[in-house]
Design a protein that fits this description.
Elements (H helix, E strand, L loop, with lengths): L6 H22 L9 E5 L3 E6 L11 H14 L4 E7 L2 E7 L4
Antiparallel strand pairs: 1-2, 2-4, 3-4
Helix pairs in contact: 1-2
Length: 100
């Protein structure tokens, strides 16, 4: 699918994708004994960043993820949601409800 986004939307999403990606790298490498693989999937209504690194340790939202959640609420009100969960071997961070 092809879609377009305004420059403002791209800047807003860039500021929110970067900390999720940094989280995947920082926490994904903990205790890892195989290559870390990170996947980014972007659709019109959803962005998903997943990695095969270290599993979630119980606390899903640390400081970085809480900041992303606050930014999303500020820019998009309650239209979008931020989720972080374990899906089999992968940790997934996703932003849902976008309208890019």
């Amino acid at each position: 699918k092809k879609w377009s986004a305004s420059p403002e939307q791209v800047v807003k999403m860039d500021r929110n994708i970067q900390p999720i990606l940094e989280n995947a790298i920082l926490h994904g490498f903990k205790g890892l004994n195989h290559p870390l693989s990170i996947s980014i999937r972007i659709e019109k209504n959803e962005i998903e960043i997943s990695n095969n690194g270290a599993p979630l340790d119980g606390e899903s939202f640390g400081t970085g993820m809480r900041i992303v959640e606050q930014r999303l609420k500020h820019h998009f009100e309650n239209e979008v949601e931020l989720n972080l969960y374990q899906n089999k071997e992968n940790v997934v961070g996703e932003i849902k409800g976008l309208n890019l």
